[in-house]
Records
---
Amino acid sequence: EVFQVTQYLDYVNVMSYDLHGSWNSYVGGNSPLFDNGEDPELTAAGVYTAYSNIGYLNGDWAMHYFQGAMQAGRINLGVGFYSRGFDDVVGGTYGDGGTAALPSNETCPEGTGINTACGHGATGINNIWHDLDDNGDEIGAGV
């Protein structure tokens, strides 16, 4: 469906950030431009073996995904100019490619969701910032 809709679009914005973060234990760049062939998450999932050492958690792969579907000048690459931190990193080169402990729900920062497990991605994190009301309680989205 992605390629079918491109005939109706003037351009496509490709998100290539938040590719790694504290929602799992694999340490990697937030918005890597290229794959170095050593991404621990892709290694654990068998991606390098299945796809001839081609990794997909990077901007280069995201741009090639649309190759042939649209002219290159109609594809915009979104790159995150911020970083993410990891605690208790083990292994890797200066931490990159290592593993880290998942964040503790007791230290969940404000604004990450009402009654959600902090920092565990698809299994719980709510990626919408929730403002606080006058009593300090989080206000749900759309209120």
---
Amino acid sequence: MNENKININWFPGHMAQTLKMIDGELKICDAIVYVVDARCPQSCINPQFDDFIGRKPVLFVLNKIDLASSGVKEQFIQSLQIKTPYMVITRNSVKSGGTEAVVKALQKLLAERIQAKMSHGIVKTLRVAVIGVTNCGKSTFINNMTNKGKTQTGNRPGVTRTKQWVPITDNLWLLDTPGTLWPAFTNQQVARNLAYVGSINDEILDTVALSQALLEDLTKLQPAAVQARFGVTSFAEIAKKRGCILRGGVLDTRRAAKMILSEFREGKIGKFNLDNLL
């Protein structure tokens, strides 16, 4: 399709304020947990990453790994070109828990700092900021670790609007922050990838054009998966086959678009790595 039909930029005012808030909070944080969607982890990384993060150790969490194609973790690690110490772990979109693995990873990243404090008889309480794009699962990640639902969640971008410090253990506090993007997308494929997974508000998008672009991109990656799910591959054929028809035989394109986007986001079409489109 003609890429000019869908040009995406979304950076509401509260995101600029959030970036300033995060920048201030990072000064008191020992490390960062950077939650990314495993279906497009490279696309989730702020292009000003090095300037934004500085030298803070980073634990990358590839969230929703069960919805991504195999090998995505290794490919993501190969793509990283950062100067700060880091580790990469994966998380399932549905299974809770996993606190021990996260704590151990953070302790390993911060071993020298913790040891230095302990040598002076100080028990170090770790303060860690959890950041990421909108709707990548930051709050769900924290709630799964606490199993107490302490932070507000929702399957749409922009649910978390304020910072929240959440105790995980006696010696670990996590800062839940609102999701943020960046002021302009220099690569529209990155923008589309984020829109496909729901990190850009559907309400500001032409969802019909977006779903058509998604079908084309998924067909480039795994044509057999699209064919297996729908039996056909074009938007119009899928709409007809699924009964998205208005009175008079007119295609209900909005309903078809919503259905296609929902089925992709729920993993019903298959497991993908959208970064292979970059």
---
Amino acid sequence: MMTTMNNGANPSEDFLVMGVCSYDTRAVRWLETLRAHYDGRVILVMTSDYPDGLAVAYDVEIRRVTVPEGFWRNRVGLGCYQWQYIQPVAAEFPDTYILRTDVFDVVFQDDPRTYVDYDQDWVYVEQEGMRNCDNEYMRGWFSINPDVAPTVFQQPVYNVGVICARGSQLADIAAFIGQRRGRTYADQTELALYMHAYPDAFRSVPLFFSHFADMLDQMQIADARHFVNKENRQKYCVCHANGKTTHYLDSIYPYAPYAEKFDLPQSLRPAKVAIDLTIGIPVKDRPVELALLLQSLLNQTFQRFRVLLVNDCQETDFLSENSTVQGLIKLLERSGSPVTIVQGDQKGPQYCGQRILEHAATELIFRLDDDVVLQPDCVEKLLAVIAEGYDAVGPIYLDPQRPTEDQVIPEGTSLEDRMKVGRVYWKDELFLSGILQVNLHPNAEPVPVEHLNSGFLYRKSAACKAGGYFLDYSVVGHREETDISYRMFRTGARLAVAPAARAYHFHPAYGGIRETKGQQMRQSLWDRDEMIFRERLRGWMK
């Protein structure tokens, strides 16, 4: 299964891949995606015990090392000793090109030998997005390198995620860093810092940075001919999480072909990361508003979710025709959020809600109108409340024209005056609305309620226990969310409003239930739904 290289080099002699890590499933993912593209030599320096059969299953050489007692054994703590472990291994292979990458948050997308230029004798350095400027790590680094003037770093220093060099070069770099530093903790940052601060020490080792060419002047390296523009080398064969959550990599690369091809034991396969949440959105003739909502989903701090769109459009199928919406759907999918479109039947939002409930493959569902925009941490805040034991939780929906109206209630304001702020129908609804609850409880703690509206996050099991959506409302679907959420409450579910979770509800004059022809007809259907709801409410109260 040897891959032929264009220049005839023997991969087993001229190239190897090396990583340093403590064992967890991410080490398996690193090996799994690497072996899907590369059949050459791999050395994994392990700082912890690992499963029997790992070396055989992935044909990897494992070097077991010992981390000092009392020292962190995770990836962050390991950084301070990583160069110490790299040096002896690199010295064993002085003429071999070694690709050293992170293991914790890296997967391979291509053959790693694309990094190698056998006609050049330079160190290839790829810099990832995490940057260091005036932070705790930088201040600590200067404390153990007092001879380096802070003015050396006129710009932020970006971490080095991938290094490709001959073994002799890598060993020299490791030895230099080992001599210079004290107990620091970020190996890839150290490399970037020392390259910038001590350019003379590396002039015998030509460098090529794949990003940020402005760093070349900053490094003040005299022999600039080593930094020719190698645009053809900027091929991303490694996907790096840039210091952010690894859920992104887990969701995009849960498996590579290697595991299936060689029938590896399940214990040695990378774990499938469950997508915890379905975001269900009925879509009805509002492409601009839907695009804003999809963009706000892309910006969420929590990213492990599926998107389920119920196409209830009347006029045009803009989900397939609108280029902006199509582009945002592709971006969501590339970021690890699968998007599924199911056809609605134009019978009202309650039918769309039931479609979402039936099609969702997750226990948690966030049902949203298509004219809503979420603040970036909205989903994260709602999930935090669910984690406290609630079965359904809604955000605070604000008017985009008055986005802070829930925050302007002075202390000492009477209950009667508090109830005048926001859209509250106290006497008619018999329930406190979300905005009223915020005004009564302005400390951002979850507020228990008996019903929710305008879209909320809930447990599928609680909604099914309550009987799902009541389908006898009109195409306007007035009260459909109040109805199901109150029945959830009556069957034992815990409901809350999360004042810390914010969203904006635009209510445009078109699309959605406003597509029902004629204002008089809409009002008639609205009144009909209200009468149905009140009759059901009287039955519940008996």
